[in-house]
Amino acid sequence: MPAIRAASKRKPPPEGFSDIEEDLLVFSNKMKDAQNTPTDNIPKHQAQWPIFQISHQRSRYIYELYYKTEAISKTLYDWLLKNGYADAMLIAKWKKSGYEQLCCLRCVQTKETNFNSTCICRVPKADVKEGHEIQCISCGCRGCATGD
């Protein structure tokens, strides 16, 4: 008979979590709604766009709380990243020059594209021919180049 594992002791959230808990709950509810939305009438690649956008908004919210407004502590920020409230890899890209407006990590991965380049949404709008609309296939972004 296998050994019974003891209940894991989860650390309580750090001080200041209660201040942003309501906002995170709103993002959580939006995410549940997006996941439960029927996807019968839309193309397969578009079904995940709302999930990517909500995840981006939640990560941007936490990023701005810590780096822009300095409203949360380092311990709370680290706890939020560790517990999956924000995408740590995406935030790491936002801190680099040229990636401040990046929509998702799939758009900068060159191995997933046909010509080993970045996504079309990374092209500045000034370089796109007039009358052409840009929209990323992986996340639905309409342009996240820093030069826009």
Overview of the structural elements:
This protein is an all-alpha fold. It folds into 2 domains: 20-33 and 46-95, no CATH class; 98-148, no CATH class. Helix content is 38%, strand content 0%. It has 4 helices and no strands. The longest helix has 20 residues, at 17-36. The radius of gyration is 19 Å and the shape is globular.
List the helices and strands and how they pair.
Elements: H1 17-36, H2 49-68, H3 74-82, H4 88-94
CA-atom Rg in angstroms: 19 Å
Strand fraction equals under 5%
Number of individual domains = 2
How many DSSP helices?
A: 4
H/E topology pattern: HHHH
Report on the biggest sheet: none
Give the helix level as a range of percent.
25-40%
Low-confidence stretches: none
Terminus-to-terminus distance: 62 Å
**Average pLDDT metric:** 86
Number of strands: 0
Shape: globular
What structural class do the secondary elements suggest? mainly alpha
